[in-house]
Amino acid sequence: MVTTVLDLATVRNIGIMAHIDAGKTTVTERILYYTGISHRIGEVHDGAATMDYLPQERKRGITITSAATTCHWSLSGTDHVVNIIDTPGHVDFTVEVERCLRVLDGAVAVFDGVAGVEPQSETVWRQADRYGVPRICFVNKLDRAGADFHRCVDMIADRLGAVPLVVQLPLGAEDGFTGVLDLVSRRALVWDGAGDGEEFAVTAVPAEHAEAVERWRARLVETVAEHDEEILELVVAGAEPSRERLHAAIRRLTIASGRSDDVTVTPVFCGTALRNKGVQPLLDGVVRYLPSPLDVGAVEGFANGGTVTRGPSDTEPLSALAFKVTSARHLGRLTFVRVYSGRLETGATVLNPVRGRRERIGKIYRMHADRREEIGSAGAGDIVAVLGLKQTTTGETLCDERAPVVLESMEFPAPVIEVAVEPRARGDQDRLGAAIARLAEEDPSFQVRTDPETGQTVIGGMGELHLEVLVDRMKEESGVEVAVGRPRVAYRETIRRAVQKVGFTLRRQTGGHGQYAKVQISVEPITADDATYEFVNEVTGGRIPKEFIPSVDAGCQEAMRSGVLAGHEMVGVRVILQDGDFHPVDSSEPAFRIAGAQAFREAVRRAGPVLLEPVMAVEVTTPEEHMGDIIGDIGARRGRVRGMRERSGARVVDALVPLAEMFGYVGDLRGLTSGRASYTMRFDSYAEAPRDA
Ligand SMILES: Nc1nc2c(ncn2[C@@H]2O[C@H](COP(=O)(O)OP(=O)(O)OP(=O)(O)O)[C@@H](O)[C@H]2O)c(=O)[nH]1
To answer: Is 589 in the pocket of ligand 1 (CB under 6 A)?
Structure first.
């Protein structure tokens, strides 16, 4: 077992983000290959890709669950550790995207050289804008007919509002694409087509390209000078910036762009991952231009009611964030964590301050796609998987008991779409239950309930594709065939009025001794945003013995799970237990639970119950000319525009729209704007639904 102390300056924690099909998986595969992790190149289309290791993903050919993998890349004789966090591209998996963006320091944005900047690449790009993640771009698929590097660069400027720094030009095109021209070093990198792309020759720029290289290099220097003082001074003095100075300036600009709202300067690389051209220089670019944990600096957290910071150093107290929980076959629960400060040691006891529980660190692994390497400890800046954590889930902090801190957590939206599921084979109910429980543990945005009327199991998630994938995984991983109902919006119920003194008496005589419990309650709406339920006991003088009070509470909570209107979960109710009565022999905990639940249902029926529907915060990013259409359409969907902004040259419309009106929005928006606009949507709040909902 190895215990390595990393030189933080040599660590890169990156994500690879792209529109579906732009080639993210192929690029990742090639990176793993060149860095020596995988020993053969797995093709996505024959289902052998290493990174997409769920059988479900192999079948679909899309990347769904993020996995972290560590590899090494040497630049100028220095070894670098590159931790790659695989990020999904589909909007239904925003939770996955959010948890990745939370823990990574930089990203490679992959574009399809034929399609250019597609609407969905805009979506992921905007997400990275929001999280302030510095990026470099890779224009992929330049071997394809119709690929056009310069058009893609123009689209990066026009559609994403970024400042593209072209650092390479393609050498040849389509079938004749043979390599890249490196503008910083004024060299040609040529893959001769033999072998599997490991070898490339570094040559002088061919004479016929010399003029283009000089022209584009001048443009590169000019753009850098516009944003960087040091290079500006050199240019003004008429000096030629050296290769090292230019690299350093591009690095400064790339990293600073992540933090800036106005300008995103992004180096642009090119190649074809499938034909193994251009990936090694892209790796050089990752190391050269993307930030190390040291560049990202200290992380903020909360302690003792105030804010504290933890610097990226092994000598600070431990702070780490769990960003993913998976269950690994034959191993059990595996928790992926990013260490922000201090060291995580095998066998140590750490604190989960959110739960107030101590946890023992079992084994620590560095993950290499589907292979694990056990290590004794992990230091600040590292990303590893831990075995043995029993309680900690996604978004929770682990820290030193003597210096507790809660790192800012990720927020998980409420599930907004539901489907009923049932096993096709009668005897499979228990296996379905186990399969669901396993998935729910991995994915905080996935929830389960039982429909009180039909008795069916209902699963809820972030979107239709999200649920579809989960159902497929039940089959693939647990062998349960599932019949699925129609997707529907996940409603809630609440009350609008207070109701006083609603009583219920349970009196039953069955054979031996009977059952007796009497309660009187009031209910009232709680208006605080996130309040779901409160229980207040005002019974004094032993009119209900103390030991039965929690049973009344439990009965009310049980009744909250299925409202009186349509069996949806209830929120926002305060119950006040005012009075009651008992019998020395016939009263019991179950009797008070039943009485509590019955009184609650009766009270709620009189308290103006209403249906609540999920309302989504929708952010549409669009070119100026489509603003009017988009705003009109939002109105037609019962939506309300909250504001408008400009971000990196595009207009951003912020609106609240009921989810029930958002089915099919992807297609409608495409129709309205010829695919130029993109949107993201997350749960905002619940609001009263119209009567006919
Ligand atoms: N011609 C060509 N095809 C490529 C290239 N890179 C990837 N492809 C193909 O494009 C398709 C999509 O590639 P993936 O790597 O699965 O794309 P992805 O972005 O990971 O897709 P998701 O996992 O679905 O998000 C596959 O059929 C690849 O073989 C390339 O450089 N040239």
So the answer is: no
Does the residue 4 lie in any domain? no
Q: Exposed/middle/buried for 406, CB within 10 Å: 0-12, 13-18, 19+?
A: middle
Question: Residue 168 C-alpha to ligand 1 middle, in angstroms?
Answer: 21
Of the candidate ranges 67-81, 89-103, 382-396, 650-664, the one whose mean pLDDT is the lowest: 89-103
Q: What whole-number percentage of the chain has pLDDT above 70?
A: 87
For residue 268, name the pLDDT band (cuts at 50, 70, 90).
very high
Binding annotation for GTP: 18-25, 86-90, 140-143
- Which residue's C-alpha comes closest to atom 9 of ligand 1? 23
- What element of type H or E holds 502? strand 499-508
276 CB near ligand 1 (under 6 Å): no
* Ligand 1: centre distance to CA 112 (Å): 9
User: 144 CB less than 6 Å from ligand 1?
Assistant: yes
Question: 62 CB under 6 A from ligand 1?
Answer: yes
Ligand 1 neighbourhood includes 272 CB (under 6 angstroms): yes
Q: For position 458, which CATH number holds?
A: 3.30.70.870
Entry pTM: 0.68
So what's the ipTM on this one? 0.96
Tell whether ligand 1 has an atom less than 6 A from the beta carbon of residue 38. no
Nearest residue (by CA) to ligand 1, atom 22, is 62
CA of 141 to the centre of ligand 1 (A): 8
- Tell whether ligand 1 has an atom less than 6 A from the beta carbon of residue 174: no
Q: Tell me which of 433 and 606 has the higher pLDDT.
A: 606
Phi, psi of 316 (to 5 degrees): -80, 165
Q: For residue 253, how far is its CA from the centre of ligand 1 (angstroms)?
A: 30
Are residue 578 and residue 444 in the same domain, yes or no?
Answer: no
Structure confidence by residue, pLDDT tens digits, 290-343: 999 999 888 888 877 678 889 999 999 999 998 888 776 677 788 999 999 999
The total number of structural domains that make up the chain: 5
Of 590, 607, 624, which residue is a domain's last?
607
Q: For ligand 1, atom 8, which residue shows the shortest CA distance?
A: 23
441 found inside a domain = yes
306 & 238 share domain: no
Same-domain pairing of 550 and 506: yes
- How far apart are the C-alpha atoms of 364 and 377, rounded to whole Å? 7
Q: Is the CB of 18 under 6 A from ligand 1?
A: yes
Give the residue numbers spanning the domain of 460: 417-485
Summarize pLDDT for 195-242 with one digit per residue, the tens. 556 678 899 999 999 999 999 999 999 999 999 999 999 999 988 899
Query: CATH number for the domain including 335?
Result: 2.40.30.10
The C-alpha angle 685, 691, 693, rounded to 5 degrees, equals 65
Nearest atom in ligand 1 to 52's CA: 23
Q: Are residues 94 and 242 in the same domain?
A: yes
Residue 55 in this model has a pLDDT that exceeds 50: no
DSSP secondary structure, 82-110, as one string: EEEEE---SGGGHHHHHHHHHH-SEEEEE
Same domain? 343 vs 227 = no
469, 485, 501 - which closes a domain: 485
Reported residue count of the chain is 693
- Give, in order, the Cα–Cα distances in Å from 34 to each of 107, 176, 370, 397, 516: 18, 23, 17, 34, 74
Report the pLDDT value the prediction gives residue 90, as an integer from 0 to 100: 55
Angle at 627 between CA 466 and CA 619, to 5 degrees: 30
Residue 390 placed within a domain: yes
What mean pLDDT value characterizes the chain? Answer: 84
pLDDT band at 60 (very low <50, low <70, confident <90, very high): very low
